[in-house]
Amino acid sequence: MARTATASLFTAELIVPAIAEAFRKLHPRALVRNPVMFVTAVVALLLTVLINVGGDGLTLGFKAQLIVWLWLTVLFGTFAEALAEGRGKAQAASLRATKAELTARRMKGDRVEQVPASALRVGDVVLVTTGDLIPSDGEVIAGVASVNEAAITGESAPVIREAGGDRSAVTAGTRVISDEIRVRVTVNPGQGFLDRMIALVEGAERQKTPNEVALTLLLVGLTVIFLIAVATIPAFASYAGGRIPVAILAALLITLIPTTIAALLSAIGIAGMDRLVRFNVLAKSGRAVEAAGDIDVLLLDKTGTITIGDRQASEFRAVGGTNEAELAEAALLASLADETPEGRSIVSLARERFGVTTTALPAGAEVIPFTAQTRISGVKAGDLLIQKGAVDSILRADAGMGETAAATELRRITDEIARAGGTPLAVARDGRLLGAIFLKDVVKAGIRERFGELRQMGIRTVMITGDNPLTAAAIAAEAGVDDFLAQATPEDKLALIRKEQTGGKLVAMCGDGTNDAPALAQADVGVAMNTGTQAAREAGNMVDLDSDPTKLIEVVGLGKQLLMTRGALTTFSVANDVAKYFAIIPAMFVALYPGLGVLNVMGLATPRSAILSAIIFNALIIPLLVPLALKGVTYRPMAAGPLLARNLAIYGLGGLVAPFIGIKIIDLVVGGLALA
Amino acid sequence: MTLQGWFLILAFTGILLALAKPVGLWLHALYEGRRTPLHVVLGPVERGFYRVAGIDPAAEQGWRRYALHMLLFNVVLMAFTYAVLRLQGVLPGNPQGLPGLSPHLAFNTAISFTTNTNWQSYAGESTMSNLSQMLGLTIHNFLSAATGIALAFALFRGFARREARAIGNFWADVTRVTLYLLLPICVAYTLFLIASGVPQTLAGVVDVRTLEGARQSILLGPIASQEAIKMLGTNGGGFFNANSAHPFENPTALTNMVEMLSIFVIGFGLTWCFGKAVGNTRQGWAILAAMTILFLAGTTVTYWAEASGNPVLHQIGVAGGNMEGKEVRFGIAASALFSVVTTAASCGAVNAMHDSFTALGGMIPLFNIQLGEVVVGGVGAGIYGFLLFAILAVFVAGLMVGRTPEYVGKKIEAREVKLAVLAIAVLPLLILGLTALASVLEPGLAGPLAKGPHGFSEVLYAFTSAVGNNGSAFAGLSANTPFYNGLLGIAMWGGRFFIIVPMLAIAGSLAAKKHTPESAGSFPTTGGLWVGLLVGIILILGGLTFLPSLALGPIADHLGMIRGQLF
C-alpha cells in the first residue's frame, strides 16, 4: 500500500466522490445513525413540504432560502463523513487489488493443487515459493524465507520469516522474495489481517466507540431539551397575543441543537483511526484508540525503546596485572569473527583506543561459536585459546580460575559496570583472566525529555528489562523512567499489569513473542509488533506494522488528540448557541414586545436578515471546521490543568465570540445582496 | 444600595462559609453512620425505631431497593397527609372549627409537603387546623428534608465506593438525619424563636381590644416549632399566608438573619461532606465556590434592581428604591437577600412578595429556580442536582484534556450521561410544557391577576416553583382551582421523583465502578478553572433553555418599564 505521509486534505479526487457520497448518505437509514442530523433533515423536509402554506407573513423567497440552508446543513454533515471515509477508501482500493490476485498452492498429502485464496480454510497447509504472494494469514511450519511486507507496512526491506520461534507469522498479500516455506492457514476467508485493514480504513464496519455513544446521548439530550424550549414558544407567544411562523421556529431549533459537533462527530472518529493507520499502527477497534488516551502506565521494553538495540563496547578493564592493551588485543581477536554489532563495536574500540592493527585471525585458527548453553565464544589457534563471554560462565569454564585474586577483582569490576548500567563481558586467555569489556547500553537521544513530557501528562513509565536489578536501576536513572521491572519474565509483566489495573490504572505495553500474548491481552492497550508471532498479533488490540516499540508513546498521543478534538468541537458547538440566541430571540419577539429590540446586540439589519444570518452561520461553520475535525486539534504534551485552560480559551471563549462576529458579517452580506 | 446592605450580604456569606466545615463534619459522621455525642441520649431511641420497624440498619441496599423504599415511604406519608387534610373537620386539634380541604387542594398540598416544595394554594391561618399543621404538614417538613439528605448521601456513596453494589440503607439514613441533625437543631432553634417573640401555643384565637377600641381576633398556634424546621429543612410552608413577612413568624432583624442562615446552612455543610466523602475536601470547596459565585451574582442583580426602583414612579415624584410588597422592618437589602436565598435554596419561605419586585429583581428568583435549584439548593436536593450538572460539565469539557471524562475518580460513561440528561430534561419538560398548557387553556388563563408579560411571569413562576420544589409563590396567581392544584401537583411530583430515580441509578452505576486514581493528566476538578466552568455550564444550559420564556416574561416586563409601560 502506497502511503503518502502528508496527503492533502482537499484534492479534487477526494472531494468530488465525497460530494456524490454526501447525497447518497441522505438515505434515512444512514441518517438515523446520527439523531441530531436526522432531526435537521426532518425539519428541512417538513418546511419543504409546507413551503406553500402561507399566512405567516414570510415571502416565498425567504422561506426558500431558509430551506436551502437547512438542507445544506445536513449535506455538509454527510459530506464531512464522506470526505473522512474517502481518504481511507483510496487505501482500501489498493489493498483490495492485492487481495483479488491471491491464489494458493494447497498441499493435499503430497499433492499440490492450485486454488483461489478464498477457498482456504483454517488448518490448510499451503506452499509458497520465491515470487509468490502469501495467500492467507498463517504460521510458517517449515522453511525460512525472506518476505517483502511492503504491501502492509510500506517498508520495502525484506524480513525473515521462519518456522518456530517468534518470527513465524506471515500475512496475506506479502511477497516471498527468496526460498520456500510451508504455511498453515490460521484464519478463514474474510477474517484475515488484510480484510480487517480494508474494513478499518474504509470505516465501513465502524462501530461507535463507547465515548462516541455517550457523546451522542448527550447531543440527543440537548436536542430534546431545545425541542421542548422551541415547541413551547408558540403557546407563550399566544399568551402575548402573537403568532410565530413555523419557519422561524424551525430556524431557531436547528441553530440551537448541536448540529456542528453532530455533523463532524463521525468524521472525527474516522480521521482519528486514519491518523493511526497513516502512522502504520492498526487498531482493531476504536475502543482501543480511546483507551490509549486514558493510559496511566506505559510498560516499555528497554531494548529498542529506551536504549538503541545494540550495546556498544566503551571500556576495557584489565585485572591481575594485565595491561589494557593486552586485554584489547585479546578481545579483538575473540571478536573478529563476531559479526554482531556488539562484536564489531569491540573491534573498533580496540583499534581506535589502543591502535591494535590485527585485521585477520592467525592461519588455522578455529572459531568457537557462541551458544546459549555455554554463553562463551572465542577463538582457538594451536596453543592459543581466547575466550569471551558472560562473567559467570567464564569463571566456571576453568576450574581454578574462580578462586584467583584476579577473579575477586573481576567480580568487583563486574559490579561497578552493572551499577553504571553496563554489561560486563569477561575475557580469558589460556585459562588466565585478562579483564572485562564494558558493554554500555546507549540510551536513545531525547528519550529522557519524552519521559518528562509523559510525566507532566500524568503518565508513569515503567522500563521492562531482562537485565539484573543493578544494571536496570542505572539505565532507568539515566533514561528518566519512573520505575523498572528487572529480570522480567512474561509472568512478571502480567502480574505488574494486573496490579496496576487493580489500582484503577490503565496500562499500555507492546510485545512480540508468544509468551507476551497473555500480557498483551491483559493490557488495556496492547501493541503487537508486526514481526511478532501470530499469537501476539491476535492478543494485542493494536498492531504496529513498523514493529517500532517507541511508537507506543505516539499512540497515546494520537488517542488523546482524538478525544481532545471531540471535546473541543463539542464545547465550541455548545458555546455557539449563545450568539445564535441573541440573533434570533429579538428577531422573533420584537413584534410582540418592541422593547426586546435591545437584545439585538449585534445590530443586525432586520429580523429576517438576523434569522437568515444565524442559520447560514450554523451551516457554514460545518465545512469550515472540517479541516480541524480531520486533522485533529493541535496536540502538545502538557499537564491537564494548563491544557484545559488553553483549550477552554480557544474553543470555549472562541466558541462564544466567533459566532457574534460571523453572524454580523453574514448579516452585512445578506443586507448587501438584499437577500432578506 | 447602601454600605449597610452590602455589609449584611457579606456578613451573611461569611458566617455560612465559616459554618460549612463544622456542619459538614457533623453530616459526614451521619453519612458514615459514626457515633456522635448525641448517641448517648438518642442512640436507644434510634435502635428502638429499628426494632419496632424490624429494620437492620447495617443491611445495605442496591440503588433499586433504595429507590423503591424511598418511594414507598413517600407515597404512604403522602396518603396519610391527604387523609388528615380531608378529614380535618372531624379530627381534634381544630380550635377554629375549620372544615376539611377540597380533594384537589388536599391532593396538591399533600404532594407539596411530601416533595419538600411547600407550595401553598391556601392561606394557612384560615385553612389549616393545629392538628393539620403539626401532624399533617410538620411531619413532612422533617421527613422530606431527611429524605433529601439521605438521597444526597446515597449519591456521595456512589462516588466514594469502589466496585460496590450497595449505596446505603434508606431507613438508617433517614432516621439518623432526623434524630441527630434536624431534631436537635430544631429544639434549640424553636427555643430561640420563642425567646425572640414567636408564639408557641395550642390555643387558637386570642381576642384583644386595640388602642382604638376595636376588637381584633389574633390567631396564635404552634408557630415557633414549625418555623424552625420550615427554614432548616428548606421547606418554606408558612403558618401564615404572609409567611416570614408576618411578625409572628419573623419578629426581629436577628430572627430574619438566623432564618436566612438556617436555609443555607445544611446545603453549605453538604458540599464539605461531599468532599470529605470522596476523599478530597477541595472537591467540596470547589462546588461551594461555584454555588457562592452564582448566589452572590444573583443577589447583586436583585439588590441593584430593587434599590434602583421603578423609573415610572421616580417620574411622578416617588423617590428611592422599590418598597412595594416589602416589610418596612426589613427594608430593601434584607428582602432582596432573603428572596435570593430562598429561591436559590429551594426553600420557598418569603419575607417579601416577589410579585411586587421590579421585573429584573423578580427574574433572579425565577431564574434561580429554573437553574434547577442547584445554587446551594434544597437540603440534599441541591447537591445531588448540582452533581448532575457537574457530570455534564465534566463530560462536555473533560474530553479536552485528552482523556475519557472522569469525576472524583469515576469514569463518566454513556450510562451516566444518559441518566443525567434524563434527569435534567425533566426541568424544561415540566416547567415549559405545563406553562405552555396554562398559557393556552381557558382555566389556565383565568389564573394570573396581572396582564401582559407580568401575568405570564406569574404563571411561569408558579410552575417553575413547583417543578423546582421551591414552593415560593410569585403571588398574583389564583391557584386554588382544580386546574392549577392538579397541574402544580403533577409538576411537584415530577420535579422531585423524576429526577431522584435517575439520580439514584447514577449512584448505583458509579458505585459499581473502579476508582481511577488522580494524576497530573486527570481533568482538574478543584481549581478556579473548574469553578468557572461549572458556573458557565449551569448558566449556559439554564439560560439557553429558559431564555425564550424569560424574554416574554420578566425581560419584556423590564424593558416595558423602562419605556414607561407597566403591567
Please name the defining characteristics of this protein.
heterodimer; A: 676 residues; alpha+beta; Rossmann fold; Calcium-transporting ATPase, cytoplasmic domain N; 4 domains; seven-stranded mixed beta sheet; 22 strands; 16% strand; elongated; B: 567 residues; mainly alpha; two-stranded antiparallel ribbon; 19 helices; 65% helix
Protein architecture, described:
- The complex is a heterodimer of chains A (676) and B (567).
- Chain A has 676 residues and is of the alpha+beta class.
- Chain A has 4 domains: 1-100 and 191-279, no CATH class; 280-306 and 444-555, HAD superfamily/HAD-like (Rossmann fold, 3-Layer(aba) Sandwich), CATH 3.40.50.1000; 308-442, 3-Layer(aba) Sandwich (Calcium-transporting ATPase, cytoplasmic domain N), CATH 3.40.1110; 587-612 and 626-675, no CATH class.
- The longest helix of chain A has 41 residues, at 60-100.
- Chain B has 2 domains: 33-252, no CATH class; 281-562, no CATH class.
- The longest helix of chain B has 35 residues, at 528-562.
- The mean pLDDT of chain B is 92.
- The chains are: A alpha+beta (676), B mainly alpha (567).
- At the A-B interface, helix 7, helix 8, helix 22 and helix 24 of A face helix 14, helix 15, helix 17 and helix 19 of B.
- Chain B: InterPro entries: KdpA (IPR004623).
- Chain B: The chain crosses the membrane at residues 6-27, 66-85, 134-156, 177-198, 253-273, 285-305, 330-350, 357-376, 382-401, 421-440, 486-510, 530-553.
Question: Fraction of residues of chain B in helices?
Answer: 55-70%
Largest sheet of chain B: 2 strands, antiparallel
> How many structurally independent domains of chain A?
4
Which parts of chain B are unreliable, with pLDDT below 50 for 5 consecutive residues or more?
none
- Mean pLDDT level of chain A: 86
Order the strands across the largest sheet of chain A as they lie in space.
10-22-21-20-11-18-19
Through-space gap between termini of chain B: 25 Å
Question: Main sheet of chain A, how many strands, which sense, barrel?
Answer: 7 strands, mixed
Order of strands, main sheet of chain B, comes to 1-2
What percentage of residues of chain A falls in helices of 4 or more residues? 40-55%
Uncertain runs of chain A: 1-7
How many distinct beta strands of chain B? 4
Which strand-content bin applies to the residues of chain A?
Answer: 15-25%
Structural class of chain B: mainly alpha
Helix and strand composition category of chain A: alpha+beta
Question: What's the count of strands of chain A?
Answer: 22
What's the shape of chain A? elongated
